[in-house]
Design goal:
globular; Rossmann fold; two-stranded parallel ribbon; five-stranded mixed sheet
Length: 186
């Protein structure tokens, strides 16, 4: 979805920078592309890039909610019987961006799995308010899995639902999302 949003933004003559983790898709020409490997690198790189004065952050990446508390310096040998991985919460990119850039327009995505439409909207509204976002696109990955060519989203702002996309290609959904973003700039 992030790639399709970038492609549509380029078509509309917006300056686009993509901060991309490890992906198996071709990223669009016409965008500045910054590659990262970890959730921490994605957050740090994005915050550093935002120093250049962008108008908006669209946070479409599915950044891990948790990260290992300790990282092994090398290979962990096989044969260990009681291996445990301790996790700690990952810094939320949108929270960090809002704190550092209070006037930046921020749109995020909220993915849930196999929930009712009402529950999906409730979860999205909670994230919208908790992270002080301007907009959020909510989707149920139980209906359309990550990596699927089709999806459907409900886009909300603090005043309520702006759009229910209906099921469609990510290209079609990206166009609808950009229509909403550009309408909000008027």
């Amino acid at each position: 979805m992030g790639c399709e949003l970038a492609i549509e933004g380029i078509k509309r003559r917006h300056e686009i920078t993509i901060v991309a983790g490890p992906v198996n898709i071709e990223l669009p020409r016409g965008a500045s592309i910054l590659k990262v490997r970890t959730a921490a690198e994605m957050t740090q790189t994005t915050l550093k890039e935002l120093e250049k004065g962008f108008d908006m952050l669209i946070s479409a990446a599915a950044i891990a909610d948790y990260t290992p508390a300790k990282v092994a310096k090398g290979k962990i040998k096989s044969g260990k019987k009681d291996l445990k991985i301790e996790l700690e919460p990952t810094v939320k990119l949108t929270n960090a961006a809002r704190k550092k850039y209070p006037k930046l327009r921020i749109m995020a995505f909220k993915a849930e799995h196999a929930v009712s439409s009402e529950e999906l909207i409730r979860c999205a509204q909670n994230k919208l308010l908790k992270e002080n976002l301007d907009m959020i696109a909510a989707n149920d990955i139980g209906k359309n899995a990550f990596g699927s060519d089709v999806t459907e989203v409900t886009v909300l702002d603090r005043n309520g639902i702006l759009c229910r996309s209906g099921k469609g290609t990510k290209e079609k959904i990206a166009k609808k999302i950009w229509d909403i973003i550009e309408k909000g700039k008027e």
